[in-house]
Design goal:
Shape: globular
Helix content: 25-40%
CATH topology of the largest domain: Pyruvate-ferredoxin Oxidoreductase, domain 3
Distance between the termini: 45 Å
Number of domains: 4
Radius of gyration: 27 Å
Largest sheet: 7 strands, mixed
Strand order of the largest sheet: 11-10-12-13-15-14-20
Number of strands: 22
CATH class of the largest domain: Alpha Beta
Length: 613
Amino acid sequence: MSTTLTSPARPDGDAAPAGVVNDFSIQVATANGSGSQTSNTVLMRAIFQMGIPVSGKNMFPSNIQGLPTWFTIRASKHGWIGRKKEVDFLVAMNPETAREDCLDLEPGRVLVYDEPLKLNELRSDLVMVPVPFDKLVGPVCPEAKLRKLVKNMLYDGVVAYMLDIEMEEIRKALFKQFGPKKVKAAELNWGAAQAGYDWAKANVHVEQPYRLERMKGTQGKIIIEGNTATALGCIFAGCTFVAWYPITPSSSLVESMIGYLKRLRTGPDGKGTYAVVQAEDELASIGMVIGAGWAGARAMTATAGPGVSLMSEFVGLAYYTEIPAVIVDVQRVGPSTGLPTRTMQGDILSNATLSHGDTRHPILFPSGPEECFSMAANAFDLAEQFQTPVFINTDLDLGMNNWMSDPLPYSDAPIRRGKVLSSADLDRLGGFARYRDVDGDGVGYRTLPGTNHPAASYFTRGSGHNEMAQYSERPEDYVNNVDRLSRKFNSIRGAVPQPEIDAAAGARIGMVYCGTSREACRESQEQLQREQDLPVSTLRLRAYPYTRALDEFIDSHEVVYVIDQNRDGQLFQLMRLDLTLERIQKLRSVRYYTGLPIDARTITDEILRQEAQ
């Protein structure tokens, strides 16, 4: 099957095959702990630097080392950055999964593999490129103990040759990855990448259908993880207190925050103006956050589903005593330990009603890094304005993967502390009733500890209390209190971010989704229009409680598909709690729960299946 490469010409004078340009996926299959993350990130960033829209999805095991891991890079000239279901170009480095990975490929795809695996014996309908990685790495890396790590950089060079990735961009991405303090390591790996490229140039003469060419699709864009963007958003939102307990996939959020706080939150005396406390468990961490919020700090924690479960009682305390707190939930697969390194939107229902009794909590649903940043400010403002816990629901896909994004949208809008009474206010009023609804919005006035006024203090009670914060078990006091909390929740509807709507002309079908489903749903919308001439309108929920816009969207369509990344259709179920029967009857559920990020083709196929019934 070996043929001479044909036009168009390469920069070095060789010829390259015509075929699919800037619109395919690359998957690298390796073993966890082998150093492949560096090689894969370099490869992705080099493509990005060539101006090609790109995304990277890392599927890794929950153990430290040895189990299979896959990294998928998608290049899309159309700007699609959701996961693509199909794999077009596979680099197979892991003996444990190589056979299955090879057999899963569709005919005509490209397979680069470690030569001893002998995958050419399995199929004859793929573009096969066996590479003697072990022979190539020896001359590049004299130290045997480092060869396992350096070996991966060889495939960067091979892939760069085959796909026309400019080696200068590989070099720039590699040195950026290692940083100025690891120049020697960068040089060693650059030698490996160059060796892989040189070997491919001399030995790879197969015609293959994919290549990359420079474009201008990434101008003004950045690549950033969602956890990093959230960390920066919390800092710029004025957060001064963080209590946490490490848990995948949220740990890197607070770790990033610690690094940035050291740089950005230092007083004139050189001391930090913040506090970060690693608690003994999640229950203790949320207790500290509530205490800090009661004292007037902007306070938060970051966790995942198992941590949220442990926080239940304290979150109910904050709801009932009306203390602001922000909880970032980077969702993962459950229940129990579940699949801690896989993604899911599995905490929607539990977060909305967390704790016993009648509770309702606002939730924000960021869809990308830019909203991870901006919604942090939304969350802290809402928490203080309405004196309540607020959840930010991201997920592992957003939190731990690299996303192409617009620059983070800094806002100089003033911080909104809500109804906080100063000593001057108390002089004017003569006193206050902590839990009285003065303005009709369900939100009482509060004071902060240390306010210099005899009328400033009050008891904060998790037990029954009346408007004056006095202990009470009178039925009418309890009913008045929880009814006021319900009014407050309705008031929140007017303050949360409005949904994002893309109305298609003549569409009888609607699609509702939230969070990281955005990329797949937008692409599915395009697929349905292009392939089936089926116009579909979309509504992306950015927050709970829902606004009137959801009702109007449902009313304007015959059927509405609700997209969920969980088994039980949690977004679908939460909508049913708020909607009239007439609107509920229009809803259909589309659910995806493999632990992988949802993809457009799955949504398209399921909608067409249900439409055909």
